[in-house]
Amino acid sequence: MYKNTSPENNQTPTLKRALGVGTGILLTAGMMIGSGVFKKIVPMAQTGLSETWIILAWIGAGIITMFGAFTVAGLANLTEESGGVYEYLRLSFGNFFSFLFGWTDFTIIGCASIAALGFIFAQTVNVFVPLGNPFQSLEHLSIAGFIFPFADSGIKLLAIAVIVLLTWVNYRGVQNGGLINNIITSAKILGILLLIILGLSYSGAGATQGVITTEPTQELHGMALFSAVLAAMLSAFWAYDGWSNISFIAGELKNPKRNIPIAIMSGVAIAMLLYVLVNVAYMHVLPLQALRAVDQSQIGAAVVAETLLGKFGQTLIVLLIMISVFGAINGIILAHARIYYRMSQEKFFFKKAAYVHPVYRTPSVALLYTMIWSCILVISGTFDMLTNMVIFAGFLFYSLVAIALFKMKRNGTIKAKVIGYPVIPAFITLFSIALLVNTVVTEPKQSLIGSGLVLSGVFFYFYFKRKSSVR
After folding, report:
1. What confidence tens digit (pLDDT) does each residue in 175-226 have?
2. Are 313 and 53 in contact (CB under 8 A)?
3. Sequence-distant contacts of 181-184: CB under 8 A, at least 24 apart
4. Coil, helix or strand for 11?
5. Are 58 and 236 in contact, with CB atoms under 8 Å apart?
6. pTM
7. Whole-angstrom Cα distance, residue 218 to residue 277?
């Protein structure tokens, strides 16, 4: 294992267990609650489903996410090391599959999410303060005809600045990132609760007479209905994404074998409750016909808030989205760098990523690697394509996590009782396979690109394996 020493005291610095269960719960909820809860009502309404089916899609996606939480909670008994899902796969299957997960997280799931959220944050700021385009004269320049690094340069510069700022905050101590998360997550939960209360108490001309109705599902039946429900659930899964991230920081969480299960299940429960209630509120204020007519470039929650409070309400929602996205970026930066740190400790990533800062006790170099690749993705503008693969790649590995639980329970490595075992991990495995197959059939191009990015890790696996053998 690669180690680093402090020149001042010649001791090996380690990560500091500084985060309690309360911060763990808020981190889980904070990394999940980004922009999806405010934006997904419009594409879900446009599937042609009734209010009932839309709410059931949110509940169904939440239940499946909670099933995943139960599975990861069971695997949390394996180790107190950082890395979470990466470490669980490593202990269950060895280095190959765990490396593929870690590499996919670095190239797609983690850094591309940071880049996309940074861009969304800057776009939202641009609504209030026009950011301009300082490199407009160069925006026609491209790489390979589809990468335009100087396009939207004002937005990209602010996105990069936010990523650098939050990396610096987390570089200087995990408590800093945790404190910012607690403040921001509390603020956005309160903001969503206010929106729920205002929406459910609304009695204006646009209010519906009860959301859960038996309204016909736009003549959708059989496979058409199934496809529409699955499309709605995929939108919901994007809003729920990030639920397992707390496991990545096990090395800095107090009593992680106890607190990771509590944090994951509590965080998912908070998000699920907020998501269901706020979507009920959206459809109480505006009928589905009105929501379906909203352009996808608009934010559904902002349209609802404008109905409630006029332009002031629209402004409040935009500010709430800024706060939510800012907090989500912070949480993702904090969590995902720990995967690359743990990979480096196992000699399957760039050597210096295992460095722990002797003063701040953070994986400082891993944080810098995360920042650099995220900023490159911002400049490239390709992160939208990559984040389209996040759910595909995520469920590919969630199925492996469920299989890992079966393996570790059967060989006696995990002796503790696991909620819902063996039914829930079996369901997660079958659902993940079904979702992957459906995605391959309905989105063959995206599936091919996503699979290619995952498989690109095979080359790097053998590169790091060979390099580690000569260290």
Report:
1. 999 999 999 999 999 999 999 999 999 887 655 544 444 444 456 667 778 7
2. no
3. 181/23, 181/26, 181/27, 181/30, 181/327, 181/330, 181/331, 181/334, 182/22, 182/23, 182/26, 184/30, 184/323, 184/324, 184/326, 184/327, 184/330
4. coil
5. yes
6. 0.86
7. 23
pLDDT tens by residue, 152-167: 889 999 999 999 999 9
Site of tokens 């995220």: 374
Residues whose CB is less than 8 angstroms from the CB of residue 202 and which lie 6 or more positions away in sequence, other chains included: 281, 284, 285, 307, 308
Q: Is the CA virtual torsion 352, 380, 119, 68 positive or negative? A: negative
> What is the 8-class DSSP label of residue 109?
I
Q: What are phi and psi of 19, to 5 degrees?
A: -105, 130
User: Distances from the Cα of 359 to the Cαs of 40, 43, 355, in angstroms?
Assistant: 42, 47, 12
pLDDT tens digits, 5-28: 433 444 678 888 989 999 999 999
Residue 207, amino acid: A
Amino acid at 216: P
Asked if residue 464 lies in contact with residue 95, where contact means CB atoms within 8 angstroms, the answer is no
Q: What is the DSSP letter of 293?
A: T
Say how many C-beta atoms besides its own lie within 10 A of residue 3's C-beta. 11
Calculate Rg over the CA atoms of the chain.
22
